[in-house]
Amino acid sequence: MGELSKTINIGKVAESQLNEIGITTLEELQEIGSKEAWLAIRENDSSACFSKLCGLEGAIQGIRWHNLSENDKKNLKDFYSTYANK
């Protein structure tokens, strides 16, 4: 396991998915952002879900994704809804 799996919300599977899209560090994830990272993961894995998106954002913020602000959750939900059925 690499650096990313030591980050909150990032397990072995998420780390592998991030590595597949060229993200190997938290700094790279922060630079691309949760939405763009999730879209890239979704290109390889159509089952990428809302929880994965929230997990990525939580990792960027350094908090458990369950503790994202209501505003952040709404923003992510609106974004996710745009792509959920595509």
Salient structural properties:
single chain; 86 residues; mainly alpha; DNA polymerase, domain 1; 5 helices; 0% strand
Helices and strands, with pairings:
Layout lengths: L11 H9 L5 H7 L1 H11 L5 H12 L8 H14 L3
Helix pairs in contact: 3-4
Helix percentage range: 55-70%
Examine the coordinates and then state which fold CATH places here, giving the name of the CATH topology: DNA polymerase, domain 1
Task: Report the sheet-strand fraction.
Answer: under 5%
Radius of gyration over all CA atoms, rounded: 12 Å
Low-pLDDT segments, ≥5 res: none
C-alpha end-to-end distance: 32 Å
Look at the structure and name the CATH superfamily: 5' to 3' exonuclease, C-terminal subdomain
The profile of the biggest β sheet is: none
Proper CATH architecture: Orthogonal Bundle
CATH class category:
Mainly Alpha
Q: How many distinct domains?
A: 1
**How many distinct beta strands?**
0
Secondary-structure element order, N to C: HHHHH
Question: What is the overall pLDDT average?
Answer: 95
| Helical/strand content category | mainly alpha
Number of helices: 5
The global form is globular
Overview of the structural elements:
The chain is an all-alpha fold. The protein has a single domain (4-83), classed as 5' to 3' exonuclease, C-terminal subdomain (DNA polymerase, domain 1), CATH 1.10.150.20. The chain has helices at 12-20, 26-32, 34-44, 50-61, 70-83. The longest helix is centred in the last third of the chain and has 14 residues, at 70-83.
